[in-house]
Each structure stands twice: as structure tokens, then as C-alpha cells.
Amino acid sequence: MIKAYPRHPTVEAGATLTLCVSTDARRFRVAIYRHGDDHRSAARWKTRWFAGDRAPARPAEADWEWPGYDISVPAHCPAGVYLAALVEDGPAARGGSAQPGTADDSGGNALFVVRPNGRRVAPVLYKIPLFTYHAYNIADTAYADREAQRRLRLAPPMEGDGQCLYTSAKGASWRRPGGGTGGHPWDSFNPDFYDPTSPRQTFAHWDRPFILWLESAGCELDFCTDLDLHAGSVELNRYALMISAGHDEYWSDAMRLHAERYLVGGGNIAFFGGNTCYFRVAVREDISAIERAGKWTPGAGATRPEVRPENALTGVSYRNGGGKWRGARPPSGYTVQGADHWIYAGTGALNGEVFGAAERLVGYECDGAHFDRETASQACIEPDGTDDTPPNFRILGVGDVTGWPVSDCSGEINGNGAATMGLHENGGTVFTAATVDWPRVVALNSEPIAMRVTRNVVERLSR
Predict the structure, then answer these.
(1) Chain center to CA of 433
(2) 201-215: per-residue pLDDT in tens?
């Protein structure tokens, strides 16, 4: 048994990473891999052997205060998302044949971000949804006890094991195992029907394949976490574009504030995901954990972040979309409108054409801008302005989900039940793909319109 977490999830190149570890092995070492590396063949660097120590699990909201081991990060280390893979001592390790697990293993891994140390920054900043990872991360004393019992009988995790912020935990600390990898996400008992290779709410599921696709397309990226955006420790004005992707559900008021100031100042934001910014969280004073603070409440004309719904920033809300978490979904894609817009340049898309349906592009959760179904023209659907969506938000694709069967899950269809891809401007430009599965489909390299739209958005907004 070996588990770990970084004391601070972000470190500058040339600084020191403190990895907090608990193991029943006599000693262990760590191999560090950048997310794009073939981590089964070569590590960027390896540590010396450390003496092992066993530490207890704690409640999900607590700082677990495990022993810390300092690891020097090379000054020449490129910016990126990194995996710390821990290997316990034993004959296989000493013989050089021990291999670390994959990026979504439930133990022996920890995720952290390396940021540039003052050198030239990339044009694009990719934000890792750390708060959402931990909101669904089950790691607490009760779960650890059941996990030990399961290991004895080799049984898999079960629905209802442990607690997380999404269910009933008082808070979610990121000073505990999990948070992207090395833990047990709440819904790992329920594999994604369209991608069962990794659990949802982990780095491996949406973010890693999308980052790999972006970098293979020539996009130069720097990275930060939610905590960096919350604390204001990343200089947003050095970047032309900030990207959020996949499932980026939990935001603090300070995150909203910093993102909106960046936008008003001319920065651009691309949300290649859905169910974005739906829940508010409060960050504790010692910045070790988050606590649920409700939802942003619709209120026309409101100016305070806590009473402005998320679509004031993103243009869309889950209230007007839908979700289906279990099993297959009906074929759902986007119906094109505004085919002459620059996001469709080079796609050959025509108004009324549907793309992404075969790949189930719309899902498993999606967001929308409110519009009146009775008066909406099918040729050009526009927001009706009743739900705090910015008045200049332009809908460029509509995915109707009112026919989704939701009786087999705890899902809900809210508002007008339509995913709406589009954009608006407020100093800078905000684009939203409005569906959680956008990264999954783009990374498949099988949906040319979604792929070209992604390229168009990134290339134009990162200039």
C-alpha cells in the first residue's frame, strides 16, 4: 500500500515539490513523468530511495498531515501537468522491472503542475479543474477502512463507499490522496458508457486526451490549477487565452472575479466543457480545503458574484441543459446555425446540418442559454434575455436533449433542455462548447467539424 499527495499542487521549475506519502513498505522512490511522456518507458527524472512511513487516513475535509518528502524540480523542467509515480521497494523494484501504473490508478500516484520560472510564457493557459476533482474524490477514514477490507477479498469499489463534497462531506481537502489521480472518484463504480478506459472526474478522462490533442495540433500551453486562479498567483494578463475543459463544475467567488477581470481587460476564455462553474465553493483561510457554498442565483441586474449565475460569465448554464450519467444516450449533436461565422471557417458546415451525433457529442452533461421554444426560429435561435445570459451571446449550435430518457438515473432536464454552443464579448471573447464530452470527441479525431472549430477558436483567441 502506498498513496501520496502534493502539499502544494503547483510548483515552479527549479523549486521544491513536497510530496506527502504513506506506505507500509520499508522504503520507496518516485519517478516523475510529464503527462505527454510515455511513462512506461522513460521518466523525466527519478528520486533516491526514501524511508517509508505509515500515516492514518482522516476525514475528507481535513489536512491529512502526512510526512513530507522534498523533491527538487529541475530548472529546465518544461511547464506541464506531471505524474509522480511511487514505487515501493521489493525484488521487482531493485531489479529494475517494476513499472508504475497508469495516469488514473487509484493508488501510488499524485498529480501536480509545473509552471514556468519567469521565462517566456506560452500564449495559452490551461486551467486544471482541481476543485472538481476533489469534490468527487472519496478519501476519508471510513473509506480507507472499507478499502482495506476490500483488498483482503479483492472486491471492487461499490456505490456509496465513503463520502465526498458532491454527496455529504463537510468539505474537500486537496491535502489528501486523489484529486485527478491516485484516488477513488465517487462515480468510478459507474464507468462512462462511451469511454470506460478511465473513471470520470480524473485527469485521465477528459483533460489528458484533450491536452495531448492540443499539443499535437501545435498549441503551446502553460498550466495552472483552480487554486492558482483563486489565489491570483498566476498572472493572467500574460496570456492571450485561458482554457477550461471537460467537467469544471466547482468555482470560488475569487475564481469568478479574477476570470471576469481578465475578460474585461481583453483576455479570452474558451470553455471546452459543460456543467461549468455550476457550484460555488468557499476556500478555507488556510487554503487547504473547499466547502460547498450553494449555487449562483439568477437575478437580473445583480453585480455581486454570489448572486450572479454562471452564465453571466460563460453565457450558458446547466439549468438550461441536461444530464444523463448512466448507460447509452440518444445520438445527440449540434445543429449548425450561423455557418458563416469564423468558428466554422474551413469546416464546410451548412446551416441546419447536424455534427457530432454519432459520437454523442452532447453529453453527459450540457449547458444552454435560455430561449423561448414557441417563438424561436429554427433558422436562428437567440437567447431571450431572461436568464442573465449576456445580451450579445450568439448561439452557433443547438443540441436538443428534451428527448433524453432520464428515468434510469438521477438526472434532470432543466429550463428549455438544449445545449447551446456559442460566444459573447466583454472586452475579450468567451467561447463555450457547452458539453462535457467535447474533449472526448475531439480527441477521437473522428469528428472533423468539432476538431476544426476547436482549432479555429484556439488559433484566433490565442493571437
Answers:
(1) 14
(2) 999 999 999 999 999
